[in-house]
Every structure is written in structure tokens, then in C-alpha cells.
Specification:
By secondary structure, this protein is α+β, with helices and mostly antiparallel strands. It is built from five helices and two strands. The two termini are about 25 Å apart.
Length: about 120
């Protein structure tokens, strides 16, 4: 839901070759079946545990962008085909950079920036 510049900054640090779509109106969220989380999905024990683990690794809590109750997902799309997806079960769901990079590599893409 962030701006194109925020997306470029985020991906530039993690996977510079990747491209993202800015969707502040949440049209693609709806199209991919993503929804707002329940209290447990946003503030439950798994979320707190994930936050603690992240903090211990030196990562802080960023400022919310868009709707902080909206659950996210990752999709690898080629044209009108969804090649790979991971819909997060809650706000603490682990990011799947390795799986996304592997799916991209299987399609012939370079996964050098994903880690």
C-alpha cells in the first residue's frame, strides 16, 4: 500500500531486480483474496513472538504504511499467471525470500539479490 518510492527503497535493499506494484486502494489485495486480519492475526502470540525474534536480530518495528490490519501475501506473477504465492496467516508470518527466489530461478530469472 506504500508509494512507488517506498517499494523501490524496500526492494532495492533486498532484491534490486524485482519489481513491485503500488496499490494504496487495495484493489490487488482484494483480487488476490487478501483481507484484514482479526485481532489474533494482528496482535496474537505468534505475532509477538515473531516481533521478539526480529528485535533480537536487530530489526526494529517500522512505521505502518497504509492499513496496518491488512494481511499481506507474496505473489510471483508473469502476465496473467500466478506462478507462486504465499498468503500470510498472520502479521508475524515469516517472509519467504528463499522460496520466492527459488520460484523465480525455476522460471529462468536471476535470484542473486534475494536472501
Amino acid at each position: 500500500m506504500g508509494s512507488p518510492a517506498e517499494g523501490e527503497s524496500f526492494l532495492g535493499e533486498r532484491w534490486p531486480e524485482a519489481r513491485a506494484v503500488s496499490d494504496p486502494e487495495k484493489r490487488l489485495y482484494a483480487g488476490f483474496g487478501l483481507a484484514r486480519g482479526s485481532a489474533g492475526q494482528v496482535l496474537g502470540p505468534r505475532v509477538w513472538l515473531a516481533g521478539l525474534k526480529s528485535t533480537l536480530k536487530g530489526h526494529g518495528i517500522g512505521r505502518p504504511v497504509g492499513d496496518p490490519l491488512m494481511l499481506s501475501g507474496w505473489f510471483l506473477v508473469d502476465g496473467d499467471a500466478v506462478l507462486w504465492e504465499h498468503v500470510h496467516a498472520d502479521s508475524g508470518d515469516a517472509r519467504r525470500w528463499d522460496e520466492l527466489a527459488q520460484a523465480w530461478a525455476r522460471r529462468g530469472g536471476a535470484a542473486s539479490g534475494a536472501g
